[in-house]
Amino acid sequence: MTISKLKAYLFLFVIGAAISTYSQAETAAATPQLAPSTALSVHKNPNCGCCGVWIEHAQQHGFTTTVQNHVNLNGLKAELGIPVGLQACHTSVSSDGFVFEGHIPARYITQFLAEKPSGARGLIVANMPMGSPGMDMGRGFQPYDILLLLDNGNTEVYATINSKAQQ
């Protein structure tokens, strides 16, 4: 092998390694990170199946969960300040006291906990939107909003989910 061929191979190797490293960095930046083992206390009705599926979703994204079954969740939801018209089937409370109501995609809980918006108490996905985590219905999907629950009880849109890919 000649010196010029060796230089050419070495050059291609260095360029290939640089491209590979750049590509891996881009992929890592675009991939949502797992929650740093944040504990969630999940309050639900013992007969709710979709809550169990949502709990699995949260665990798959790095959350540790403790389940507390309640026959009636109304008192707890009122105590936590979740507006009546925005309640869902389960309520989660993080170890640092933030409230997450309903079928919220884990990536948005992780984002919220990283940001900890000033004046915010938590997030809400009202009702049980088809296609949200825990409410998978095959290919069906209903767009929905994730609401920011403010300390004063008001809400504002935190994120709009228009496709399963956004979850």
TrEMBL record:
Signal peptide positions on this chain: 1-25
Keywords: Signal
Pfam families found in the cross-reference section: DUF411 (PF04214)
Domain of life assignment: Bacteria
Protein name: Metal-binding protein
Lineage: Bacteria, Pseudomonadati, Pseudomonadota, Gammaproteobacteria, Cellvibrionales
